Amino acid sequence: MPKHVEARLGKRARQFIWQDKPFSPTNAETLFAPIDRGGRQLLDLAARNEAITVKDLCEYLIPLGEGRKTWQLLQDALLSLRTPKSGPTLHPAMKINVFLQTWKTSVGAQVQMSPYIRNQLQAAQNYGLRAEGIAFSREILRDMPIWFHAYAAPRMRKMHFSASSKCLLNNHTVRRVRDAENAAACLEHPCHSSSPECGCPHCVDAKTALKCMWPHRCFERARDLLDTLPPKWDPRQHQREDDEHGLPDQFAPPASEEWVQFDTTCITSGPLENSLCIFTSGDPHNDAAPEKDGYDPVHLVTIATDGSCLHNGTAKAVAGAGGFASPGHPANFSLRLPVTLTQSNQCAELLALHQAASFDPPDTQLFIETDSRYAMNAVSKHLHRHEDEGFIGASNGTLIRDTVARLRAREHPTYLKWVKGHAGHERNERADQAAGAGAALQAPSIVDIRPASWLRVSGARVTAVTQALAYRAIRQRKLEKYTSRVRMAMNIELAQDAAEEAFGYRPSEGQIWRSQRSKDVSREVRCFLWMATHDAYMIGEKWLRPSVSVEKQARALCPSCGVLETLAHILTACDSPGQREIWGLVRTLWLKKNRTWYDPSLGLLLACCNRQFKSTSGHLRFGDARLYCILITESMHMIWKLRCERVIQNEGAPFDPAAVRNCWVAAMNRRVNLDCLMTNTKRYKKRATPPARVTATWANVLHDEDNLPPNWARRGGVLVGITRDQVARGVG
């Protein structure tokens, strides 16, 4: 999509979102951000177009060998022709694929090139397209181009233009690593000598069939080229696949015991395109996998792991991980999660698995029991899909990747088994106690979860990339640079403090944002809550900006009170008839339901959807919580609407207090009857509200409730318990 079209569509989308306002209350990145971060999760058009380009790039790279289509070969040729003129002239046969070699193609604005191809090259550079993997099959290593090999030592570049190299290229038709390997292998023939007159079969064939004047020098140059490759990329060296076969597992448990062997296979095999990954990060690691010492475990260790989290899901969450093998065993552990990890039960289960795998004496085979299906599936059932997708969008993806790396680093096979938690399993119960003790520690534990360098990989395979996956990856990268608005962060902290004081727990930022999208809150009120939490309304000090005219700066003050008009002032402190009357009615109605009342503040109003009320026995009272949410959100939105009507339409003229109270009572009556209408299962099917929920919400606050029919929640026609007398004289 052309950039000017993208810009016009983006502008039109902003106009639709902000209803043709002359300014955007928040920046575009806030709209694109996820719900948990205070965004609206709208489509990022620029990221969507980038994702299409990335998908096109991946299509161009599949396949890289036989079966390549005409358009792909044409693009290869176009890229080959665009090498910088400032560099040395390269033989066309040397240039096989720009992403597998170190030669460059010009992408400057002065170079004539299709925008389609230019965008692909830019995307490859921005998102780290490169060959990436822990280890590769020799088939892939031999399919790599030998000239300008992407991971060869820099000294290789000096070898490309010698007479021997030219002979290898033109006469011996050496193009790939396998060709150089075959040429270098001629030096090992027992009859071969370094003399130009060598009569070994390879030299004779090279002289007669290939017209090579000095085969020995060409064979040596092929060997020199191979010697520039790091061990990870040299097919002549020991490779990981040499350790993947052959020796049986002499301590394998019976299949009837439901143990699952962890798959240590980490070899990238298949066609050459499987080696390419995109959305990589950091520098590539070319350390080869170490050779395994042997396969003779002497000791078997079974360890149970568990995780625990105090105040799970809140801002005060603290998690611990524990493992237990037997009393006094060195594999036992109890730790508190570092602050760099998400404090959740799932993270604790994964870290417990990681720490159990860290117990790796050279003569020990490990059996791990866990009561977490999530952790078990993360390193077994879903592992290959997550690895192919680069853990993009996976919850706790980094910790899963590090845990898998630790399991793969073990000398001997590891077996995993799921056990039911809290079912009298001795090791599991002791592991649960260890995890609880870890969560209760005063300070976080120091845990190094970084894998060994040869196990560090990143990125998604180009063969697994879809447009949706590419979009998630691009948005994930953008989100790493996203910073929350300062005013929003202050309001979130106000809401957390108020919720902690009123309800006894401190919700996380994500909980606050998700709760404001509750089904109990109407769509119009949700929008108001989002704007209020972001402090995005044009009120108060926003009118005092230098760009605002002096005449309009007077709007910064409340017309009734003469003080700076903030949202907190409008909702809780303004002297003009409105907020005082409405909160008085809310208090009167609420005290019929629950004897606990909190004076409204901005923080409490923003956190009202995170309400929690408990009975004397400690059980949550969901009906009370739902009614509180409805009363507070509807009332604060009405106060805001009345303020806007008074200031904008009525030019500051105050409302009659009785009219305000009548307006509120009518709104509550409409809301209770809307709840009754929503119980219609014939019309709303699965979306219908259960009648029991409506009854639990409005019980004890309805007018003449004792005389209502038993099924009033399905019939409607009920009124809230505020009498005309109370409306006329005012309450609260």
Automatic annotation (TrEMBL):
<dbReference type="InterPro" id="IPR012337">
    <property type="entry name" value="RNaseH-like_sf"/>
</dbReference>
<protein>
    <recommendedName>
        <fullName>ribonuclease H</fullName>
        <ecNumber>3.1.26.4</ecNumber>
    </recommendedName>
</protein>
<keyword id="KW-0540">Nuclease</keyword>
<dbReference type="GO" id="GO:0003676">
    <property type="term" value="F:nucleic acid binding"/>
</dbReference>
<feature type="region of interest" description="Disordered">
    <location>
        <begin position="229"/>
        <end position="250"/>
    </location>
</feature>
<keyword id="KW-0479">Metal-binding</keyword>
<dbReference type="GO" id="GO:0004523">
    <property type="term" value="F:RNA-DNA hybrid ribonuclease activity"/>
</dbReference>
<dbReference type="Pfam" id="PF00075">
    <property type="entry name" value="RNase_H"/>
</dbReference>
<dbReference type="GO" id="GO:0046872">
    <property type="term" value="F:metal ion binding"/>
</dbReference>
<feature type="domain" description="RNase H type-1">
    <location>
        <begin position="297"/>
        <end position="440"/>
    </location>
</feature>
<dbReference type="InterPro" id="IPR036397">
    <property type="entry name" value="RNaseH_sf"/>
</dbReference>
<keyword id="KW-0255">Endonuclease</keyword>
<keyword id="KW-0378">Hydrolase</keyword>
<dbReference type="InterPro" id="IPR002156">
    <property type="entry name" value="RNaseH_domain"/>
</dbReference>
<feature type="compositionally biased region" description="Basic and acidic residues">
    <location>
        <begin position="233"/>
        <end position="247"/>
    </location>
</feature>
<comment type="similarity">
    <text>Belongs to the RNase H family.</text>
</comment>
<dbReference type="InterPro" id="IPR050092">
    <property type="entry name" value="RNase_H"/>
</dbReference>
<dbReference type="GO" id="GO:0043137">
    <property type="term" value="P:DNA replication, removal of RNA primer"/>
</dbReference>
